[in-house]
Design brief:
2 copies of one chain form a homodimer. Chain A is of the alpha/beta class. Chain A contains 14 helices and 10 strands. Chain A has helices at 3-6, 35-39, 58-71, 84-96, 110-118, 133-149, 163-166, 171-178, 194-209, 230-235, 260-270, 279-292, 303-313, 348-357, and strands at 29-31, 43-48, 77-81, 100-105, 122-126, 185-189, 217-223, 274-277, 322-327, 343-345. In chain A, the strands form 2 sheets. In chain A, strands 1-2-9-6-7-8 form a 6-stranded mixed β-sheet, with helices on both faces. In chain A, strands 3-4-5 form a 3-stranded parallel β-sheet, sandwiched between helices. In chain A, helix 9 (194-209) links the parallel strand 6 (185-189) and strand 7. At the A-B interface, helix 4, strand 4, helix 5, strand 5 and helix 6 of A face helix 4, strand 4, helix 5, strand 5 and helix 6 of B.
């Protein structure tokens, strides 16, 4: 049974709506064997959203988004994306049999373009979109106008735009609670903040429906170059756009306030906090995940671990707590930094010599 | 609970052995919405082995292989691979903390090299290995000798070499039976034949332990350019090596007899058959899976669907049967054929014009 179907009663979905699925959700929760102990944590787990059909948690959003578009007989799926939302929507559009058009953030990496194109999506890359805040907001408004002409909405993975489909992402929290092992702390990578908000709302919704063991603190982690929410949470301020996002971490570059103010309020209500991390440390944690834990994440997917490190440095986490880092997207989506070293060998005896030297 | 742990009693694993996991198995079984109906089939399902941790069914093998090497305190994981076995072993070697060395088949695609390298494996690409049968067999023997010097075996995903670890792959059949909906027919892509054999043995083992509903016919599908087993099954002959494999389908090029004769015998016992398909048809089915079913497979992963098409053309499948195609590996592993078409746009009004023309 799909995760949307399993938790249907915790989602506000019309009774008659048919739910599309490509096998999203039910992702593994894997105990850390190395990074957790190295950081002094007894119970660190990774939630592998990398193992969704298109390699990111956005499949939970897209499954519900396209179910809705199909029910509405929408003539088009029109979306904005830095890649992961687009790949997910492109895949689910095929089973809804709805043409998919994606306005891409300038600089979307090749791995994600390849995925979207494989699923037959129409790809439009717009200059400065997702980098310059004024241009980004203008394009959003323009796209909303186009969508209205088609009697549909624009697909953006944010509650501010698509509250219905974003409910799909709340299933992450339901899965974490359902194992009878609800965590004390969850670290979440944040760009526009939709994922963080979905996870906070998911725990809240679960605790209303079930006898919750305790509150789960939901923490919002951002790259320093795009601090739209993290400092605001820490300092009790409102979310604020940045003029120019300077982080290189694809997927977390959006300079606009999307779900920002709801994130600040609801993260604070969970007892969670905001954390800023450097791009360099994110890249180092990406490498550590792959080389120590066997988990191949894209850079954005490793941001949660960098945030956990900050929280521990600041003494804000109890080392006995059950802590979950959300690993949001698969490494294959953004391989620009990787240049595999391969030794080419013509004669077998050369290999024998090389191995004997090790 | 990991799939190896869940089905531990159906596997021959020493009681005291600790089983490593990265969340392998428990892969989705998705009903075809388009290809099945187009082919006239009422109940076609895809088993998405693409959604394993490193993107292929080889993770089921690697999880058990590294559990065994860890229990044996092996000093090295020495493997041969065309990419997927290597990526899986590289990932699980990190959590076993054992250095991983991979002798690569000549022509291993970049996506797979990137994965193996990300997990810190040492990569050796050997000229003509996996293409020329004489050279391939020589290199296999040489590697076995090196492994012996380290008091370990060579990691090849074949029962002929690693019968212990190959049991892990049998969990595919257990998962298919456990849903109470055991299929009548399963189509399996075959190179060396290990996957086909594991699936046949899995159904057999399940039927000994449980009251099986019926026999499942296991079908072996190969590209025409590497017919080591398919014709042999059909004609009641023995498996035979090919001098030079001419297929371009990465992962299914091995010209040697690995599990070939066991495959011929045991597939025949299930009532299954052998099917040959062209490289071109494989590529077309890969595209159809991505564009009609939202499933992004590597070319080898689409071979099962091409085989099913052949079987239907030859009138060898009952259209009311419950049929499963195994989709073995993810599209991101081999993107050489994909060149995404992206329209670059400087001003928003250009996008509006283009969309209005659609």
């Amino acid at each position: 049974m799909s995760t949307l179907q399993k938790y249907r009663t915790l989602l506000e979905i019309p009774d008659e709506m048919q739910l599309l699925t490509l096998g999203e959700g039910h992702t593994p929760l894997v105990r850390s064997r190395s990074i957790g102990p190295d950081l002094g944590l007894k119970n660190l787990f990774f939630k592998l959203e990398t193992l969704n059909p298109t390699g990111s948690y956005k499949d939970r959003f897209a499954a519900l988004a396209l179910s809705g578009l199909l029910a509405d007989r929408a003539p088009i799926c029109l979306a904005t994306s830095s890649g992961n939302t687009g790949a997910a929507l492109a895949a689910y559009s095929t089973i809804a049999n709805i043409p998919c058009h994606i306005a891409l953030i300038d600089g979307t990496p090749m791995g994600k373009l390849t995925q979207m194109y494989a699923h037959g999506a129409h790809l439009w890359m717009l200059k400065d979109f997702g980098k310059d805040v004024k241009k980004t907001d203008e394009i959003f408004e323009g796209l909303k106008g186009i969508a209205r002409e088609y009697n549909t909405g624009i697909q953006v993975s944010a509650f501010s735009t698509q509250p219905f489909a974003m409910q799909g992402v709340q299933t992450i929290s339901y899965e974490l609670c359902d194992r009878g092992n609800q965590p004390q702390d969850v670290f979440v990578p944040a760009g526009g903040g939709g994922l963080t908000l979905a996870i906070a709302r998911g725990f809240q919704k679960w605790s209303l429906a079930h006898k919750a063991l305790h509150t789960t603190r939901v923490h919002c982690v951002q790259p320093e170059g795009n601090d739209t929410m993290a400092s605001a949470i820490r300092n009790g301020k409102r979310a604020a756009p940045v003029d120019k996002s300077t982080t290189t971490i694809s997927g977390l570059q959006v300079p606009s306030i999307l779900d920002g103010n709801d994130v600040v309020r609801e993260v604070t209500e969970t007892g969670g906090n905001g954390y800023l991390v450097t791009d360099q440390r994110i890249m180092e944690w990406q490498e550590s995940l792959a080389r120590k834990e066997g988990i191949y994440a894209e850079p954005a997917g490793a941001v949660s671990v960098a945030g956990l490190e900050r929280a521990l440095q600041q003494g804000e986490i109890n080392v006995n707590d059950n802590v979950v880092c959300i690993i949001t997207g698969h490494g294959f989506k953004n391989t620009s930094a990787a240049k595999p070293e391969v030794v080419h060998i013509n004669e077998f005896k050369e290999l024998k010599k090389l191995l004997n030297k090790l």
